[in-house]
Design goal:
mainly alpha, 6 helices, globular
Length: 137
């Protein structure tokens, strides 16, 4: 996905801003490797988008990364989400739901239920994403 395909060239400050965002999202993705409550790949998807507009070199590095590159390429090329990622996300959201319901004071319950509804919608969307590339017939 070359940066030219995403629109007109950006100004230098805009490129630096997006490059800084890309670096921040890569850092958050790395933190997600060690903290089970933080996702890794969604942060790297955002980082790859920022890098595609600001740094072709960083974008190539992300897409060719030995551990995460295939996940990013699958997402960009076909919108694929592996089943394992769907299950991990579902379990983490269920845990978050239980924790919020347990620790939230009564006055926060409407907000908690709104968050739970958003997570449920996200899970419906996530589970509708393809897991494998369609086979050629």
């Amino acid at each position: 996905m070359p940066s030219e395909a995403l629109g007109s060239p950006l100004s230098a400050p805009a490129r630096w801003f997006l490059l800084t965002l890309a670096a921040i999202f890569v850092l958050l993705g790395v933190v997600g490797l060690f903290l089970p409550v933080m996702p890794t790949v969604p942060f790297l998807i955002v980082a790859a988008w920022c890098a595609s507009r600001s740094s072709p070199r960083m974008h190539r590095w992300l897409l060719n990364h030995p551990r995460f590159g295939h996940l990013l390429r699958d997402w960009y090329e076909a919108g694929l989400v592996p089943r394992r990622a769907k299950w991990i996300t579902s379990v983490m959201m269920a845990g978050s739901t239980c924790m919020m319901l347990y620790v939230a004071p009564g006055r926060w319950l409407p907000a908690v239920w709104a968050i739970i509804a958003c997570m449920a919608l996200i899970l419906v969307w996530l589970w509708r994403r393809p897991e494998h590339r369609p086979t050629a017939s």
